[in-house]
Design brief:
493 residues; six-stranded mixed β-sheet; Leucine Aminopeptidase, subunit E, domain 1; elongated; 19% strand; alpha/beta; 16 helices; 17 strands; Aminopeptidase; 2 domains
């Protein structure tokens, strides 16, 4: 779904389309090179609109004008200069530009004087804003289709921009793949089908191993299997390997929770809003999208992507509150609430990854707790970590990409809250500090490996609309983790 808009690159001297977007300064006027490209009638029309609207060129704000003469029929000015408190998010600028373009018509975006990497991020933002999910709509109107027929980017160095765009292609496709997975209905995307879609990464050179229920039982992933034992759909674990780094270098590992539908099990959820629980696999979707992005750009890093895929249903075989299960690590878990199931899935996958692959670090993503929404809303993902350096890298990457995280505490007092009278631990510590006790639970399965847990319940599904996303599924985390890997490629850990 990433190719809803066709983007081409042109020199500044090329003829512009009838619909044009240009950057403007605080006075509302475009740079001289831009003005030369679009012509005097368009410049004059824009100046008149700026005066009438009292437009001040504020960041990401737009003003539009109809042009009476010349090849340009409509011109839009957009403020691109970040002021105090504004972040120069070029992808967001691209999203705003796409939203300002006329539907069904070719358009030109004149980016004279804009750095190549910034222009490439603008194009990325346009592609992400163009995304829609209409697979199951039998009728779509013009409003649903939206967007321009094609977009030409007029720049100083077309060859350099074309090269930079190639590096963004896989990222856009990876984010849209993650969005597709989260948006899919649960009767279509059950564990086996999710695993099948992950296997498609082999076309990009990713090594993919799918472990079915029998294999998982043989390995000893009893905590994960307990979650899915009430479902008609067999559970799966998918291991994806990208070997782009030096032989012998320890891999970076990314683990995703993939509960393809979560009823809550025997501790069943309220009916209202339960349909949203199709998105309880957003962590796994992010990992698949990330692996696509890394393989598509031939990342020079060794990376493991691992996802645990289950469906949590309440039939006669389902696990019960009071059950005790033995995890792959050998630690026993008392089930207090069957709706605290994601941590059981992650517990076994985390242990398996650290034991088998000896990674340099592990980052897991999960729509794990409603409590993180209470704490942080939909603006940040919750970050928990046993390693300050890894936490710092994730925080910086969040600031750079706009997929922001906020570090939350871990500590012995919280750990005590999940001690059990009958087993090594219980799977929930009660109402208070719910996100923290969930993280404390996961930490018991990382075996000292540098690790971070991202609770994405507020950002991975039903997320707030943004300049680059107008869909229910944001694809959150793909840009963030791609940036973390890119830092490692440049010599970071």
């Amino acid at each position: 779904m990433a190719d809803r808009v066709a983007i081409d690159v042109k020199p500044l001297s090329a003829a512009v389309a009838a619909d044009v977007v240009v950057p403007v300064g605080a006075d509302g006027s475009p740079p001289e090179a831009v003005a030369k490209t679009i012509g005097d009638p368009a410049v004059a029309a824009l100046a008149k609109a700026v005066a009438v609207e009292r437009f001040k060129g504020k960041f990401k704000k737009t003003v539009a004008a109809i042009v009476a003469d010349g090849p340009v029929e409509r011109v839009v000015g957009i403020g691109m200069t970040a002021g105090d408190g504004d972040k120069a998010d070029w992808a967001a600028i691209g999203g705003v530009i796409f939203g300002a373009l006329a539907k069904g018509r070719p358009a030109s975006v004149v980016l004279a004087g804009i750095p190549v990497e910034a222009a490439a991020d603008i194009a990325l933002g346009m592609r992400l804003r163009a995304y829609t999910f209409d697979t199951y709509k039998t009728k779509t109107d013009d409003e649903d289709k939206g967007g321009p027929a094609a977009v030409m980017l007029h720049v100083d160095d077309p060859a350099a921009l074309k090269k930079a765009l190639k590096a963004r292609d896989g990222l856009a496709a990876g984010m849209c793949l993650a969005r597709d997975l989260v948006n899919e209905p649960p009767n279509v995307l059950f564990p086996k089908e999710f695993a099948r879609r992950a296997e498609a990464l082999t076309k990009l050179g990713v090594e993919v191993e799918v472990l079915d229920g029998k294999a998982l039982a043989k390995i000893g992933m009893r905590a994960l299997l307990a979650v899915g034992q009430g479902s008609a759909h067999d559970s799966r674990v998918v291991i994806m390997r990208w070997n782009g780094g030096k032989a012998g270098d320890k891999p970076l590992a990314f683990i995703g929770k993939g509960v393809t539908f979560d009823t809550g099990g025997i501790s069943i959820k309220p009916a209202a809003g339960m349909e949203d629980m199709k998105g309880d696999m957003a962590g796994a979707a992010c990992v698949v999208g990330l692996m696509h992005a890394l393989a598509a750009r031939k990342a020079k890093a060794n990376v493991i992507g691992a996802i645990g895929l289950v469906e949590n249903m309440p039939d006669g075989a389902a696990q019960r509150p009071g059950d005790i299960v033995t995890s792959l690590s050998g630690q026993t878990i008392e089930i207090i609430n069957t709706d605290a199931e994601g941590r059981l899935v992650l517990a076994d996958v985390l242990w398996y990854v650290q034991d088998r692959y000896k990674p340099a670090s592990m980052v897991n993503l999960a729509t794990l707790t409603g409590a993180i929404l209470v704490a942080l809303g939909k603006e940040h993902a919750g970050l928990f970590s046993n390693d300050d350096d890894l936490a710092g890298r994730l925080f910086r990457a969040g600031e750079e990409t706009g997929e922001t995280v906020w570090r939350m505490p871990l500590g012995k007092a919280y750990d005590n809250m999940i001690d059990s009278k009958f087993a090594d631990m219980k799977n929930t510590g009660g109402r208070f500090a719910g996100s923290i006790t969930a993280a404390q639970f996961l930490q018991r399965f990382v075996n000292g490996v540098p690790w971070a847990h991202l609770d994405i319940a507020g950002t991975g599904m039903d997320s707030s609309a943004s300049d680059i996303s107008k869909t229910w599924a944001s694809g959150w985390g793909v840009r963030l983790l791609d940036r973390v890997v890119a830092e490692a490629e440049r010599g970071g850990k």
